Amino acid sequence: MTERSGAVLDRARIELGLSQGDLWFHYFALGGMSSAIDVEAYLADILEPSTHDHDLIAHALNELFTELGQNHPVPYLADNVTTGSRCQPGQE
Amino acid sequence: MSSDHSPPADFRVAISYTDVAVVLDISGELDRQSSPELGAVFDTMFDRGHDSVVLDLSGLAFMDGHGLRVINHAARRLTSLGEVLTLRSPSVEVQRILGINGLAASVRLELDNTEQSQLGPEQSSVDRNATVRSSPTTSIKQTDPMLIMPVERQLLDDALGLVVKLAKMAVRAADGVSVSLLRDGQIKTVAASDQTILKMDKGQYATHEGPCLDASIEGRWFHVNSLEKETRWPAFIPMAQALGIHAILSNPLLSKTRPVGALNIYSRSVAAFGPAEQELAAAFAAETSVVLSNAGLGASADVRSQRLHDALRSREIIAQAQGIMMERAGVGEDAAFDHLRRFSQQSARPLRERAEDIVASTRWPELDIEQIEAGPYD
What we know:
The complex is a heterodimer.
Chain A (H helix, E strand, L loop, with lengths): L4 H12 L3 H10 L6 H8 L7 H17 L25
Chain B lengths: L1 E4 L5 E7 L4 E9 L4 H13 L5 E11 L1 H16 L4 E4 L3 H9 L6 E4 L25 H7 L10 H18 L5 E8 L2 E7 L2 H13 L3 H8 L3 E3 L11 H7 L4 E9 L2 E10 L7 H20 L4 H31 L3 H15 L3 H11 L7 H6 L4
Parallel strand pairs in B: 3-4, 4-5, 5-6
Antiparallel strand pairs in B: 1-2, 2-3, 7-8, 7-11, 9-10, 10-11
């Protein structure tokens, strides 16, 4: 069975030894608008975050992994989207 | 009359009915596993038309964020019906959790007479009616004026100034934002987006009434959908109307669980603040409350305030960079963030630094997105 997206994020959080509150703070600093309770619910797969919110949390985790020498191990949902209006870096 | 609701292990909900309310007496551990059970009971009660609900927490041994979320949903649902969820006999620890998460402002607390309340004296009375307004003078005297330490004021004021700026940007239809805070025994405006908003706050202090004052004193939120139809605060309303304001949203700011101020959002449009705006404003107020809760606790408060300050600066710079990307690349907000995120990923540099590069690049308009990607300072 495929692991749910919240569980993937929460596993990464635990691997980093990060509290849920600290993860929310990193997410908030990146511009996240969801409350700490909502983020907690995303991690528990009780609520489903938007792709943007998911990727904000993923990026918050990845920036911390980068400090530990790991290259963005947490996957982004937007990278799995093959259609739509998203742009690649450098693409005008 | 009472009945048990199919209890999972270590968690029970006993339902009983009084003449005026449904009482849900929960015991055991309210956590990820058991919270859906309580949610289902709430749903059943609401579906049956019960809008007067007491949640008895005296037998609760443990509650985590999942339980808090279920209670929060129930409280919001009752609030939308014009009712208030009553929480009976929460432990000191549960009171603290409610306070930190801003939930204490949207429920009514019934505390045991023998129990030491962790709320301010103005909130601790048994069966306090949330619609009863207390006099400003009395309540201000009852609240501890030393909650905000002078040595930390500058840092705190900077952070609150950023809160005002960000809340105004984030909350749609907000024409002005202010933060009022209890200082030296008086409620004062410590940050305001412009002079009109400052006058709005001062008008409330002068008339001793208004949503900003009531939120600061009573520790619960006030929403004025349309000043034309508002009957509360008769002295203040004409003053607000003269300044062109038509809708107000005041969320309480709490230090631990004591109300110490309010985040006030004003609009020139009637019915400006829908559920999404209300939720966003509450989120800003809750985060600000976390900082205020740590003010006055020595060095750790400095660190905490600095951390919030940095986070707010980071949000601001990222939002600016997103705006620039949206304009230059003709993409939406989320796509602009994806751009930024990929720049960060490819360069293994924090997103904030890449955002700073992009904002700095506006000084060199000849730079395009590709050059930014390479990094103007690389």
